């Protein structure tokens, strides 16, 4: 059983010296302390979430707790690759859509988990490699993120790509063997497909400053310096009987790189320390202003993948455990995420006399620019269309592709042709642009598109 292997890896990080000073801190509750996890987290500008197996949404005892206590959900399995693309190019969103509807009806945000992961690949993808796999994986990212566009708060774009042990390097997998740039290619494709979602890298055994978390830290720093779109890092936090003393410091060093951090799959082995560890993790998140929320990997002990570990906040009868109280108290005692400083009051109106209106005639037309994310054998093109000063009621962008290049997939435009001269027309919702307004579309292809330049015509 694959997930057993992960569990062992996750809980054998025996980090000692665990719960330092913070644990003995007296917990006070503020005057307007919340009485549920969701209310208390929301008061502090954060979310408190749970992983949900959507089949359980029809169990009343389960859903009662979920709706009362949590304001964020993540699909435990239903948005993974094997669930969403069981056969190549045939997508299935039943479970994921059901969870999104439940979330929307109950005031919950949704974390998306996970676009690319070496586990739970569908069989057809397990058998692929090289540029065929690279194209298939980028297509998967594009299609799934496009389907859920606008509905996901944060996506785990890539899950568990780093190796355990002391190397600090990447984990071997067929995804990794498509080339070291697979992670950034996935993030760029996800950004194009759902520009509103925060894009996260997510992993386990990263619960302190260690070789693995440092490998990830270096990747994030590199991505930020090169403009690869990454917004957040998820710390799964499948924990044993102790907590790294530098858990909070580790979150903070990532936050200092300019990304949000989130606790994404929290569960803690039962035992004397369980409530203390839950409290300490919550306090650590509260103390890091860019820690935007916490998700536990399930609701009740019996819902957990960790079986007899009794690792969650509610027992099998739905009763709140001591760990629940520790979390609630820590949420209520913690600081709120600082809000943006008030903006300066408006300055005095300018006293200059009004200038003459511009005399230039409006520019009929549009401009287009392209940014390419290329790898050996394929590419994703992101195209920006800017309306001239007369605006547009429609636009059409042409490219002449080098020989050997072929368009395989297009979003937010309609393609005509796939090789040679290819044209992309607006779709019904993005043709009408005001003066200077910008819209974006994209396409994916095989071969190389390097050096292509777009021409834009407006109507
Ligand atoms: O392994 C714990 C988590 C580690 N981080 C990534 C998470 O995505 C992962 O979640 C677990 C789910 O909680 C399990 O429910 O991922 C496992 C897969 O590696 C999930 O287990 C699978 C079983 O392996 C399948 O046999 C089963 O069909 O759950 C499937 C649906 O119940």
TrEMBL record:
Residue span of the signal peptide, if any? Answer: 1-33
Q: Which GO terms describe its molecular function?
A: endo-1,4-beta-xylanase activity; polysaccharide binding
First-level EC class: hydrolase
The record's section on Gene3D superfamilies has: 2.60.40.290, Glycosidases
Reaction(s) catalysed by this chain, per the record, are: Endohydrolysis of (1->4)-beta-D-xylosidic linkages in xylans
SMART domains the record matches: CBD_II (SM00637), Glyco_10 (SM00633)
Alphabetically list the UniProt keywords: Carbohydrate metabolism, Glycosidase, Hydrolase, Polysaccharide degradation, Signal, Xylan degradation
Residue ranges annotated for the CBM2 domain, each copy included: 359-459
Start and end of every GH10 domain?
31-330
Q: Where is this region: Disordered?
A: 334-363
**EC identifiers of the protein:** 3.2.1.8
Any one Gene Ontology BP term: xylan catabolic process
Biased-composition ranges, Pro residues, are: 338-361
Q: Tell me which InterPro entries the record gives.
A: CBD2, CBM2/CBM3_carb-bd_dom_sf, CBM2_carb-bd_dom_sf, GH, GH10, GH10_AS, GH10_dom
Active site (catalytic residues): 265
The UniProt similarity line reads: Belongs to the glycosyl hydrolase 10 (cellulase F) family.
Q: What is this protein called?
A: Beta-xylanase
């Amino acid at each position: 059983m694959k997930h057993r292997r992960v569990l062992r890896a996750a809980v054998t990080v025996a980090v000692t010296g665990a719960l330092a000073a913070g644990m003995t801190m007296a917990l006070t509750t503020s005057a307007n302390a919340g009485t549920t996890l969701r209310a208390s987290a929301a008061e502090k500008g954060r979310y408190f979430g749970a992983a949900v197996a959507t089949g359980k949404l029809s169990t009343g005892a389960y859903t009662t707790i979920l709706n009362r206590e949590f304001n964020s959900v993540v699909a435990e399995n239903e948005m993974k690759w094997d669930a969403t693309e069981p056969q190549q190019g045939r997508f299935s969103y039943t479970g994921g859509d059901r969870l999104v509807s439940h979330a929307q009806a109950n005031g919950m945000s949704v974390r998306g988990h996970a676009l690319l992961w070496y586990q739970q690949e569908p069989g057809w993808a397990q058998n692929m490699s090289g540029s065929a796999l690279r194209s298939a994986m980028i297509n998967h990212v594009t299609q799934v993120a496009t389907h859920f566009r606008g509905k996901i708060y944060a996506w785990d774009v890539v899950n568990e790509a780093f190796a355990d042990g002391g190397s600090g390097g990447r984990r071997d997998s067929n995804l990794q063997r498509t080339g070291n740039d697979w992670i950034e290619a996935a993030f760029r494709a996800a950004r194009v497909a759902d520009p509103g979602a925060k894009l996260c890298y997510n992993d386990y055994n990263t619960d302190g400053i260690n070789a693995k978390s440092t490998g990830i830290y270096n990747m994030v720093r590199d991505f930020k310096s090169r403009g690869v779109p990454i917004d957040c890092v998820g710390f799964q936090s499948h924990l044993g009987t102790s907590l790294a003393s530098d858990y909070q410091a580790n979150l903070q060093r990532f936050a200092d790189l300019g990304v949000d951090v989130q606790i994404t799959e929290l569960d803690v082995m039962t035992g004397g320390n369980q409530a203390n560890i839950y409290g300490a993790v919550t306090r650590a998140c509260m103390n890091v202003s860019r820690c935007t929320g916490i998700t536990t990997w399930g609701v009740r002990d019996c819902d957990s993948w960790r079986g007899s570990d009794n690792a969650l906040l509610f027992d099998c009868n739905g009763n709140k455990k001591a760990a629940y109280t520790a979390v609630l108290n820590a949420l209520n005692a913690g600081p709120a995420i600082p809000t943006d400083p008030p903006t300066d009051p408006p300055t005095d109106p300018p006293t200059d006399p009004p200038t003459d209106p511009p005399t230039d005639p409006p520019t009929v037309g549009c401009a287009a620019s392209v940014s390419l994310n290329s790898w050996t054998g394929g590419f994703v093109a992101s195209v920006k269309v800017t309306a001239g000063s007369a605006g547009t009621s429609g636009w059409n962008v042409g490219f002449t592709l080098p020989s050997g290049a072929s368009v395989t997939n297009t979003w937010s435009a309609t393609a005509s042709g796939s090789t040679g001269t290819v044209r992309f027309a607006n779709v019904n919702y993005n043709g009408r642009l005001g003066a200077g307004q910008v819209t974006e579309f994209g396409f994916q292809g095989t071969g190389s598109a390097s050096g292509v330049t777009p021409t834009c015509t407006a109507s």
